[in-house]
Amino acid sequence: MTTKKPVVKDTSPVDWKVQAVLTPALAAASLFLIMAVQRIHLLAPAEWFVHQVVLKENADLALLGFTAVWTYYITNWVANLSMGFFASNGKIAMSNMRAQKAFLSGLPARLNAVHFNALETFPLFAAAVVSARIMGVPPHLRAGFAMIYVVARLVHAVSFALDLVLLRTLSYYVSVNTSLILLAFAANPQWYEKYEYYSGYTDAKLSSASKSAAKVASKLKKEL
Fold this sequence. Notes:
The chain is mainly α. 78% of the residues lie in helices and 0% in strands. It has one domain: Up-down Bundle (Four Helix Bundle (Hemerythrin (Met), subunit A)), CATH 1.20.120. Its main location: membrane.
């Protein structure tokens, strides 16, 4: 008995010539976005919060652990729930889930893709974090890039679920490039020294931004 292949409907088709230009353009844009985020210390409040939970030197490992839980448990759980919720009989074929996933479309298919895309990028991120620690990349850089990776993956998941193609692609390249940059820093210390100089993302400036975030948090607590 021959099984019919599922027909995939593309809601946002792009000509291959446009794709040939768009992909490298978004990849390059992601590099400037990463530097801009760190130059203005946009994620300083989030980094300050992480430092309240774990030691500053171990913030990158904490974010790596969160990403592992997000990748292997949360995205998989959400994808499976959506598959069962949108199934005609409201059930999940536990004996052969892959066969059921082959016929997914719409939101369940996109959520399943979120899970698999997370699986694809996590090993690179893990290798980057571990390599950066072994080679002595400064803690504020390890934590800073790890934080951007986590935020990028969360944005990627939401934009993928909502079928926001450009935002999804941009957030994907941000997450990949943060890992590649960390690997580059691990390979050559001069590169992260130059990055600190040109981006202004130094430990001293980050500490100042974190103190400002702490003051804001303190004021909010008093008001509440």
